[in-house]
Amino acid sequence: MTATSSEAPAAGPPRKATFGNVLGSEWTKIRTVKSTFWTLLAGVVVSIGLSGLISLGFTSSYDQLSAEDKAQFDTAAFSLVGLNFGMVAFGVLGVLVITGEYATGMIRTSLTAMPRRTEYLAAKALALTGLVLVVGLVVSFASFFLAQLVYATKDLDGSLGDPGVLRAVIGGAVYLTLIALISLGVGMLLRHTAGAVTTVLGVLFVLPIIGSFLPGSWGDNLAKVLPSNAGGMMMSAREMDDALSPWAGGLVFALYTVVVLAAAFFSFNKRDA
């Protein structure tokens, strides 16, 4: 009697990671990391809270304003002003999405699972875009409606049906999303959390201050296209004489985002992990 032995079937080639798999993985990752929740919570609270507080301050001093200052009132821009401070948290989130992986060494594991770096970074950018856009819409609409409750006490409230208002409120969410994407690109280029956050804050807050001191008409024109000056116009319901139009400002800020991300993609593909 002879014993028969059965051979185990040969293992097939390893399954190739698809872009959909990586996108799903990045979506799960960004939603489950604790820092994401706390960073977004800070952005939500600061944006909505300051929008409400600043609207209270504005209405309390409204009667003392000159007729010229009153004529400059933009119900959308003045309702979303808190986003100019809350955007810091969204920028920090964009940085942490990539620098956190470098800090823990997780980047090597991620690239082993998905060696096609362009697809990996694209999946990360898409996951970040989806999350921030949804949260940004909530923040922007909540800030607007909260401010309208305050402005109604002085008959200054507006509605989404007013010219340019709906576009401006949606523009606030898009602005936060683009800030997160620019920050992702900066984080990818620098690979260091503190350095990337400092760079983003410098671009968003320090450059406009420097621009305001530039002399002559060329200084005024340059100041208009600085990142936060241009991007901030996305939250304005109407045009201003000393700034880009809302559409032009959004286009300029989107161009900054594309340039930074393109540089990040190029660097990511050329450098070691």
TrEMBL record:
Keywords (A to Z) from UniProt: Membrane, Transmembrane, Transmembrane helix
Pfam families given in the database record: ABC2_membrane_2
Source organism, top-level taxon: Bacteria
Stretches that traverse the bilayer: 37-58, 78-100, 121-145, 165-190, 197-218, 244-268
Species of provenance: Thermomonospora umbrina
A GO-annotated cellular component: plasma membrane
MF (Gene Ontology): ABC-type transporter activity
Name of the protein: ABC-2 family transporter
